[in-house]
Write a structure and sequence with these properties.
Elements lengths: L11 E2 L12 H4 L7 H19 L9 E2 L2 H11 L1
Antiparallel strand pairs: 1-2
Length: 80
């Protein structure tokens, strides 16, 4: 079984570093293709819960910013 990335090419993080496009935390986005199948299943379970939570909120009230190179590098460094 192959689990596809939930990415929708709308990479904007909220204050908790969760992408409001795919509902993954930046640490879950980094190296997606190198995660184990079990890890991907677990991440997708968290994504489903986050999606439900975020969809109950007013999207205009969530402050977001694009993922910066520094944030990406910091998340990547944590994965090592």
């Amino acid at each position: 079984m192959t689990i596809s990335s939930p990415c929708v090419a709308c990479c904007k993080l909220d204050e908790h570093k969760v992408c409001v496009g795919c509902y993954r935390h930046i640490n879950e986005i980094v190296d997606w293709n190198r995660q184990s199948e079990a890890d991907l299943v677990f991440i997708m379970q968290k994504v489903a819960l986050r999606r439900e939570h975020y969809q109950q909120q007013d999207a205009n009230s969530i402050a977001t910013s694009p993922i910066t190179q520094a944030e990406w590098q910091a998340a990547k460094a944590q994965r090592k």
